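Q: Focus on the chain.
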Amino acid sequence: MKIITDLQDLNIDHDTVVTIGNFDGVHKGHQKIIRDAILIAKKKKIKSVLFTFTNHPVNFFKKDKLKNIITKEEKYRIINQMGIDIIVAIPFDEFIIKLDPKEYIQTILKDKLNAKQVVIGHDFRFGQNRGGNAQFLKNMGKIYGFDVKVMKPICLKNIRISSTYVRNLLEIGDVDKVSEFLGRDYEIKGIVVHGKKIGRNLGFPTINLKYDDNILVPKVGVYQTKVNIDGKIYNGATNVGYSPTVKQNEFTVETYILQYNGDLYEKEVSVIFIRRIRDEIKFDTLEDLKKQMSMDIKNIM
C-alpha cells in the first residue's frame, strides 16, 4: 500500500476507484464501503484509492472539539490489511474548504485522483459549505466521466453504525458494545511510564500508559482489559480516572496485569478494553481499596 500525504505529490495517471471520507474508527460501516471500493477496483482491474484527512474536519472549525477513535497510524494499518492500494491522507485546511463542489470534483477527483468510479456513504457532503452531496456527485459524474455508487446506511441491531454512535458508547463506558460496532475490541496504545508506585505498595503493581492526547478514552471507571505485550496477550484490570482514594488528582490509564512480573518501563503496549466493571470509587481506607481491587481481579478471572 502506498500512502500519499501531500497534494503536491498527488498526480495519479492511471484509472482509479476512489472512496472518500474521514473514516474515523474504521467501523463496520466504513469497512463495508472500503470493501466495495476494493471489489469494484479488482473487477475493473484498476487501483483502489482511499481519500481521507489527517485531522478531523470538525476540529478545523472548532479546535479540539472531537477526540479521535483511533490514531492515524492504526487507521492506516487497518485499511492496509483490508487491501486498499493507495491511501491519500492530507490536512483538512483552507485550500480544501475553499473548493466549491465543482472545483472539488475537477481538482481532486479528476486532476489528482483520475477517478473512474467513486464509492461514498449516503450522507457524504463535500466542497465549500458542504454544498455537494451524493446526488450532485452523481450528476457531475456523467459530465466528468466517472460512475458513483452510493452506499445505503449500514445498521446493526436496527442502529445505524456511525463514528458519532461509537463515540457516545465510549463516553458512557459501553466498551463491549463498541467492539460490536467496530468489529474489533477498542484499544489504546502507548508507552509505559513511571507513576507514583501506589499500586505496588498495595500489592497490585500497575503500569501507567502515556498515550496520544487526541485519542478518546472510555468513561472513568474500572475495566476488564487485555494487554498486548510484544504480541502476547495478558489479562488485566484497568482504572481510568483520578484514583480518588489516594488523592492522585491526575487523570491516568492504569493497569494491573495478571501473571506478569517483567519490567515494561519505556515499552510500547496496547490496553484492550473488554467490559466496564464498575465506577471509580473513593474508599475510606486503603484497606477497603485493596479489598475492592481483589474483588475486581476475581471478577475478570
